[in-house]
Design a protein that fits this description.
- Helices cover 64% and strands 0% of the residues.
- It has 106 residues and is mainly alpha-helical.
- The termini are far apart.
Length: 106
């Protein structure tokens, strides 16, 4: 047989469970709103970052002068003096270079 106290305790348990479900549902709704706000903020930040990167690339390209191509045929305008060029080795009567004779004698 069902007693009045067992019915009351069941009602109390059901009421407590309903309150707990409502609290949890409120938390879920709050979390969903915060998640949606975070997604919106993330999209704004991505757009701002993209704009900043684009502006930075434009600033860099405007600040960097384009270098003229190097023309090697015009790189040397001054001729080398003939006395600065290496000379052919001088040979003595025996066909030895002067430097070799100095090394042998020394």
């Amino acid at each position: 047989m069902v007693s009045v106290s067992s019915v009351e305790s069941l009602r109390n348990a059901v009421a407590l469970a309903e309150r707990k479900v409502q609290q949890d549902q409120t938390r879920v709704d709050q979390d969903a709103r915060r998640l949606e706000d975070s997604k919106v903020q993330l999209n704004r930040d991505k757009e701002q970052l993209s704009g900043n990167q684009k502006a930075e690339r434009q600033a860099e390209s405007a600040a960097t002068p384009t270098a003229a191509p190097v023309r090697l045929d015009r790189a040397f305008t001054t001729e080398v003096p003939p006395d600065a060029l290496p000379r052919a080795p001088q040979l003595n009567a025996q066909g030895q270079t002067v430097g070799r004779v100095i090394n042998i004698v020394a």
